[in-house]
Amino acid sequence: MAQNFFSFSLHERTQDAFVAWLCSCYNEPVSSVKHIVAEEFIKDLLLGVKQLGVSVNFQSVEVETQIYDIDILLTLKNVNNSGNDRYVVIEDKTNSKIHDNQLVRYIRNLIKKKKTSEDHI
Questions:
Q1: Any idea which of 41-45, 74-78, 102-106 has the lowest mean pLDDT?
Q2: Exposed e or buried b per residue across 45-73, where buried means at least 16 C-beta atoms within 10 angstroms of its C-beta
Q3: Among 63, 91, 90, which Cα is nearest to 77's?
Q4: Which DSSP symbol is given to 28?
Q5: Alpha-carbon distance 40 to 36, whole Å?
Q6: Contact indicator for 57, 79 with CB cutoff of 8 Å
Q7: Whole-model pTM?
């Protein structure tokens, strides 16, 4: 059976911290192992939009935790065109499931707060 890192930490905030840290490693020098692992992780998060034919280009990642009720919010910064930043909402669970239309509420709130559109989330 494959080992699961998160079985060693049953607290959501610890998991949030690890995922947030991992994503922030994208901002390390391109040649660093941490950057390469972070890049692969973020690309995996974006597989769904890639399958829709949407290309997401970004040069840096801003990571925020516990903002707008979102566990982790990634802002994929497009240095050449800041109006083209993309957002990734990460909601992790340890002992519960998505409820009360959480993701829909988070996306609506994010659209208002960041003055963006749903297709950038």
A1: 102-106
A2: bbeeeeeeeeebebeebebeeeeeebbbb
A3: 63
A4: S
A5: 6
A6: no
A7: 0.82
In the chain, the amino acid numbered 20 is: A
Q: Which residue has 């801003």 as its token pair?
A: 62
Contact yes or no for 77/65 (Cβ under 8 A): no
Distance separating alpha carbons of residues 79 and 105, to the nearest angstrom: 28
77 — pLDDT class (breaks 50, 70, 90): very high
Beta-carbon contacts of residue 61 (< 8 Å; ≥ 6 apart): 23, 24, 26, 27, 38, 42, 74, 75, 76, 77
Contacts with 18 (C-beta within 8 Å, 6 or more apart), sequence order: 5, 9
